[in-house]
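Next comes this protein.

***
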Amino acid sequence: MKHVAILGASGAVGREMMKILEERDFPLASLKLLTGSKSAGSRLRFKGEELVAEEASEAAFAGCDIVLGAAQNPVAKRFAPAIREAGAVFVDNSSAFRLDPDVPLVVPEINPEDAAKHKGIISNPNCSTIITLVGVAGIGRLSPIESMIVSTYQAASGAGQGGLEELDAQVRAYAEGKEYPAKAFRYPLAFNLIPEIGSEAFQGYTTEEMKMQNEGRKIMHLPALTVSCTCVRVPVMRSHSISALIRTKEPVSVEAAREAVKNAPGCRLVDDLAQHSYPMPLDTSDQDLVYVGRIRKDLTAENGLALFICGDQIRKGAATNAVQIAELL
């Protein structure tokens, strides 16, 4: 039985962590909910009871075994030393420590053994990275993946509760002939696409786009992996979608790829174009499997395969992956 705390418990991912701990019957001795000062004192339901959230402080981690982080980078960096000093393991969903060579970056379906190498912190990867890599890992076991060309279609949920609420309000305002100003996003998201997520990082690529390559190399133990990624915010409430063109060291047939996906942990093969069956956000929301379909040969490279992948950003892309890491511990 473990004493667990959730740092950032009042946000969308923190609330989902509570839900998943309950669903998976995680062996809890106690659960502590930690928030910022504005949310301290709020009551959140867990297993039929109301738990009172308390303001996060350096002293709040005493007695904890595991801390699930659902807060932004500055908060994660501030409290990480106190979490380690308390003897707890920090499973952090922020990007603060993902590329630190001393911090494992873990997707349990791909590199669970890395979790055992922690020194008090384990990082949860970027949501799109998790969903994409779970979708292609089975094929990568047939032949190492050398490069990927990826476009992500990221739901409003990727911006947290504020993103979900804003898209809902904009759609309602549109139906009533009214305007609703953009706040969570740079431009209105309803009936629009925004091809910018994150800030400029490298040769015109954004921070979000570079995560697919940099985190993918670390998770899959492929230091030479190259990825060209374009991230697009789309007017979908929940579940990210990814169009991926992967190129393997040796040719992999479509039939072998389908079988690999079918047998890969955490995946569901949904691939029957004749029956109009393929992954879609509505089907993948509020569950943990990554759906993979539209598997076909790349017409531009002998060793290439094209795929379409969907997965719930809040669950497998964030909260569920963190709880799975805690289960490994």
